[in-house]
Design brief:
This protein is an alpha/beta fold. It contains 10 helices and 9 strands.
Length: 343
Amino acid sequence: MEGIFTISLDYELHWGVFDKRDRKSREQCYRNTLQLVPRLLELFAQYNVHVTWATVGSMFASDQEEWSKLKPAIEPRYHEEKYSAYRYVGGHAISREDHWAHFAPASVQSIMQYPGQELATHTFSHYYCLERQDEPRAFEADLQAVQQAAALFGTRLRSLVFPRNQFNPDYLKTCFEQGITTIRSNPSNWFWRPVSNTGSSLLRKLVRTADAYVQVGNHRTSYPLSSIHVLPGEPLQLPASRFLRPWRAEYRFANKWRIRRLCQEMRLAAKQGECYHLWWHPENFGDHPAENMEGLQVLLQQYAACQSKYGMKSWNMGEYADHLLPARPHNLSYGHTDTARHC
């Protein structure tokens, strides 16, 4: 069995941090990110690397008016109201001058134009699946809304990444019922176990950062394809192997160790015929675009070498379902949509 290289991206702009960051402070990052997406797509095409773009559904809208029409009829009632995207929008009107932080339909459309690039979901509202809330139907409504938003682009979404990696097995059945056949799960190390926002600790964050540069957690980051179990009525669970940490000016020398370590792990996965799953946020590249793109090119050159020497392949998350799950009917209903958008 040849090794498999997978990349999944959590594409979210300000929807991913509205509860803890000011959008104006991130303006240059977001603008850089939107400019980087076409360059990333071209680079992935150059190396024939298949990528899953798990995109917040709110970004599919062109403005706040359309967003209001697309949002779910049932909203979560978080005990901590600051986690609600709907409360955020209610208190922060999104003018045309602020679209760069929230809406990117042209970017979404461009992803679909490249073979091997999978448009997937990061939920409609950057939904937190481990936060306490009192509306049991909210998650189902969120996925229904995101599928209806995707229908504007003439597609259905079948892969999902839980925001903040809040993997919750209680939601797997709902995911499957709404057409999701593959989800990303977390690495096995204790510091990657899913927790709520309030449950995350400084120690966990420090250990996660350290593990990107030196051996802290489990040395085994790849896994055999046969270890991905097919469970009736649930999506495939595809574990992440490693988070690609962004280039940091204060870590000038350690930055090279970070990339070297990823290359070593990928090469070992290729030799052993195992799966290696890398993930990050496109926004992680926004502060230092040139340095981050340079590091990514090194990684993709390593993949090309592994492909040539060991026959390694590249799959996006949805392609695992193509190979491991029986075919599903294409007539699942996600609600009524009058017209498809043409960007």
